[in-house]
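Quick one:
INPUT:
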């Protein structure tokens, strides 16, 4: 693993730039690097209709563990991340964060617990007219007082911290740009830079690579993985890039129809497992569809590398 200070993505063939290490958040009372334990116990979520978006699901994620969530559209990945991030309340079952049941806590205790979690949604909620520096430093709001947060809207505090985070994503030259002057991929990385400036013990990241080209996607994922590993933070990341999930994560959970189909290391996930996970049951088999790639018998024992 590369050291945190020089791990930012670099264009191929160019010498590595010197990137300052991220300063540590002072005085928050939250130990940087203390990973958060996350668990679902027979958790279900109904978003209103009869179908469950998450169906009687149990998983246990140790502090500092790195887990990829994969599965077809509508499988329940965002819903699972929402439940783990205490944004979505399970309609049945329990979620546990560091052993505590968030939905039974008082308001202030729940807010304290949520500070331990950093959730990055699929579509970054970045105000278009905001400066990038302000957008990134929003990742520090949970650890700032109200007064300091309001003051930061007027004048950016600690811009060097935002600059260091942006540098990890090769965006340091965009520090003072307006958000609406960024490309979709730049906006996505600005949103991820928020995770780097936060002192959360768990990163729950929903499809962080959807707007990125393949090279940037790999580099960006590496920054997230290295940052989490360096801090000992827990990382749960939903991905549609199955190859990257299998290459970069030690544990991969396959979700389909709100249920866990498999939950194991990539070395024990075969092409057949991937093909079944993504099987489109509305259409019959045809050449080029996932099941056509599966070798009968031996496929399940080989790591999948077919997407
Ligand atoms: N707010 C909502 N109201 C009603 N149904 C919802 C809501 N959010 C999600 N769903 C439904 O819950 C199911 C799971 O959705 P979810 O967004 O968790 O899937 P996903 O695996 O993240 O999908 P994608 O890969 O397309 O982002 C889907 O059937 C979806 O239509």
């Amino acid at each position: 693993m590369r050291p945190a200070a020089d791990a930012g993505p670099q264009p191929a063939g160019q010498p590595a730039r010197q990137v300052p290490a991220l300063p540590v958040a002072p005085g928050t009372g939250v130990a940087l690097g203390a990973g958060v334990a996350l668990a679902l116990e027979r958790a279900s979520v109904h978003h209103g209709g009869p179908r469950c978006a998450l169906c009687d699901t149990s998983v246990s994620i140790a502090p500092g563990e790195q887990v990829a969530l994969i599965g077809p559209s509508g499988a329940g990945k965002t819903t699972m991340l929402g439940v783990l991030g205490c944004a979505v309340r399970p309609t049945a079952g329990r979620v546990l964060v560091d052993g505590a049941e968030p939905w039974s806590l008082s308001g202030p205790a729940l807010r304290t617990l949520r500070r331990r979690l950093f959730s990055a949604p699929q579509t970054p909620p970045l105000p278009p007219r905001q400066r990038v520096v302000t957008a990134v430093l929003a990742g520090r709001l949970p650890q700032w007082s109200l007064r300091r947060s309001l003051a930061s809207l007027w004048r950016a505090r600690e811009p060097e911290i935002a600059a260091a985070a942006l540098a990890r994503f090769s965006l340091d030259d965009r520090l003072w740009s307006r958000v609406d002057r960024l490309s979709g991929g730049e906006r996505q990385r600005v949103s991820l830079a928020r995770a780097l400036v936060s002192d959360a013990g768990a990163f729950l990241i929903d499809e962080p690579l959807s707007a990125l080209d393949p090279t940037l996607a790999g580099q960006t994922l590496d920054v997230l993985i290295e940052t989490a590993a360096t801090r000992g933070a827990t990382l749960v990341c939903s991905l549609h890039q199955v190859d990257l999930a299998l290459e970069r994560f030690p544990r991969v959970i396959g979700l389909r129809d709100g249920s866990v189909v498999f939950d194991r290391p990539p070395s024990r996930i075969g092409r057949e497992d991937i093909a079944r996970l993504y099987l489109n049951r509305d259409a019959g088999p045809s050449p080029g569809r996932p099941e056509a790639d599966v070798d009968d018998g031996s496929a399940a024992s080989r790591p999948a590398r077919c997407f």
